[in-house]
C-alpha cells in the first residue's frame, strides 16, 4: 500500500487515444499517408491504432517495419543475439517459465514460438496483459500462456516457488526497486535470466539524467552486480556484447512523441 502504483501502460494508451480523439486530422494523416512517407515513430503509432482496432496482422507487419528503423542496426544485432542465447539456455529446462515485467510481450511471445514450455506473462499492468491476451489469441499462441498481474516488489508466490524466471530489460522499468531483488530471491529457487543493457558510467550526460530519474540501480553494470550480490544472489554475466545505441527518432505527424 505504501508503494507507488502507476500503471504507465494504461496512462500511455489513454493519452494516445485522448490525443487522437481531440485531433482527428492527425489520426487521418497517420492512417491515410503512404506508409513509406511516415518516419519510424509515426509508423509505430499507426501500428498501435491498427492494434486498437483489432487489425493485428497489419499492426504486426507495420510494427516490425518500424522497429527495424527505430533502433540502430548494431543495437538490434546485440539485442537479437541476447535473445537467441537466452532461448538456447532455456531449452534444457522443464516446467513453466515466468517472464517478469513482460510489457507488450516481445520476449515472452518469442519464447512461446521457440520453446515448448508453458510461459507466464506477468506485468504490473492488467491493461497490457489484456492486450497481450487479444494479440496471442489472434495469432493462435495462447494455448500455453498464462497471464498474471502483480507488483514484483510484493509478489503472490510462495517461497522458492519459481524454478525459471526471465526478464527482457524489465528491471529498469520497476519503480522504487529498493527491495525488489530481495523479493525475487525469496520466490526464485532456480535460475533468473535477466537480459540487461548498461550505460557507461563515465558518460556524463547520460549518467546525470539516469541518476536524476532514479534509474541507476540496474542501468550501470557495477551498481547492478552489487545490488544482486547484496540481495544474496550468485550472479554472473554471460554473452556480453558492446554495441552503439542511438536516440530513437521522434514523431513528425505526432510531433515530438
Automatic annotation (TrEMBL):
Organism annotation: marine sediment metagenome
SUPFAM superfamilies reported in the protein's UniProt record: S-adenosyl-L-methionine-dependent methyltransferases
Pfam families, A to Z: Methyltransf_25 (PF13649)
Ranges of residues in domain Methyltransferase: 97-188
Protein name, per record: Methyltransferase domain-containing protein
Amino acid at each position: 500500500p505504501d508503494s507507488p502504483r502507476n500503471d504507465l501502460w494504461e496512462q500511455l494508451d489513454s493519452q494516445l487515444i485522448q490525443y487522437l480523439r481531440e485531433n482527428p486530422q492527425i489520426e487521418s494523416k497517420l492512417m491515410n499517408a503512404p506508409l513509406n512517407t511516415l518516419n519510424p515513430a509515426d509508423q509505430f503509432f499507426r501500428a498501435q491504432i491498427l492494434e486498437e482496432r483489432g487489425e493485428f496482422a497489419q499492426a504486426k507487419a507495420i510494427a516490425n517495419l518500424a522497429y527495424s528503423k527505430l533502433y540502430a542496426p548494431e543495437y538490434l544485432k546485440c539485442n537479437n543475439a541476447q535473445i537467441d542465447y537466452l532461448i538456447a539456455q532455456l531449452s534444457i529446462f522443464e516446467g513453466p517459465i515466468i517472464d517478469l515485467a513482460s510489457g507488450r510481450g516481445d520476449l515472452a511471445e518469442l519464447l512461446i514460438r521457440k520453446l515448448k514450455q508453458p510461459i507466464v506473462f506477468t506485468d504490473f499492468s492488467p491493461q497490457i496483459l489484456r492486450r497481450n491476451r487479444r494479440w496471442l489469441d489472434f495469432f493462435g499462441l495462447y494455448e500455453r500462456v498464462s497471464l498474471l498481474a502483480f507488483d514484483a516488489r510484493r509478489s503472490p508466490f510462495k517461497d522458492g516457488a519459481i524454478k525459471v524466471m526471465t526478464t527482457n530489460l524489465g528491471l529498469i522499468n520497476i519503480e522504487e526497486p529498493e527491495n525488489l531483488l530481495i523479493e525475487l530471491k525469496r520466490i526464485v529457487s532456480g535460475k533468473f535470466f535477466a537480459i540487461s543493457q548498461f550505460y557507461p558510467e563515465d558518460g556524463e550526460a547520460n549518467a546525470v539524467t539516469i541518476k536524476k530519474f532514479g534509474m541507476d540501480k540496474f542501468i550501470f553494470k557495477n551498481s547492478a552486480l552489487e545490488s544482486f550480490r547484496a540481495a544474496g544472489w550468485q550472479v554472473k554475466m554471460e554473452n556480453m556484447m558492446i554495441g552503439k545505441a542511438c536516440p530513437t527518432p521522434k514523431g513528425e505527424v505526432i510531433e515530438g512523441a
